Amino acid sequence: MWLKKIIGAGIVFSVLLMPVNKLDAESRIPAEPSSKVASASEESVKPDPNALLIGQTHHQGRAAYTGSFTMVADNGTLADIIIENHSNHPMYMNLYVDDYSEPMETTISKNSEKTVNLLALQDTSVKVYIYSRIGHDMDLSIRAEQFR
């Protein structure tokens, strides 16, 4: 009889001493917060100031990567193009800014990442061309963001 009482008490204490799950604690919060709390939380959420020009893109194969975007002056004057070269060979990138400029060329070393910064004071169209000079397989990731 004593053994049953001790085991029962042990089970009760073990349940009481178990850590509270964070999700359980959050589910106990009232469903409808006061209007003061709701308006304060809405004000703390600010929109992302960056404009996505090229979403995260993964490119593989022997064909060159081509992409284009337009920097809109209202979204800011600065942009970053981030290229990750996952291959064991260098790649080359030509940037064509508007239709009248000479291309800007840069090298992306093997197994490395390169960030190219652009500054545009007005709406500007940009074309990106990434290639291999000797035709090897390319493996790259690219993304571009515009910001203030």
Would you write up a description of this structure?
- With 148 residues, the protein is of the alpha+beta class.
- It contains 3 helices and 8 strands.
- Strands 1-8-3-6 form a 4-stranded antiparallel sheet, with no helix packed on it. Strands 2-7-4-5 form a 4-stranded antiparallel sheet, with no helix packed on it.
- A hairpin with a 6-residue loop joins strand 4 (91-97) and strand 5 (104-108).
- The longest helix is centred in the first third of the chain and has 16 residues, at 2-17.
- The chain starts with a helix and ends with a strand.
- Mean pLDDT is 78; it is low at 2-47.
What keywords describe this structure?
globular; 3 helices; disordered N terminus; alpha+beta; four-stranded antiparallel sheet; 148 residues; single chain
Distance between the termini: 75 Å
Query: pLDDT below 50 for ≥5 consecutive residues: which ranges?
Result: 2-47
The level of helicity is 10-25%
Topology order in helix (H) and strand (E) letters: HHHEEEEEEEE
Class derived from helix and strand content? alpha+beta
The major beta sheet can be summarized as:
4 strands, antiparallel
Outline type: globular
Give the strand tally. 8
Evaluate the radius of gyration.
28 Å
What's the arrangement of strands in the largest beta sheet? 1-8-3-6
Beta-strand content estimate: 35-45%
Mean pLDDT: 78
Summed up, the helix count is 3
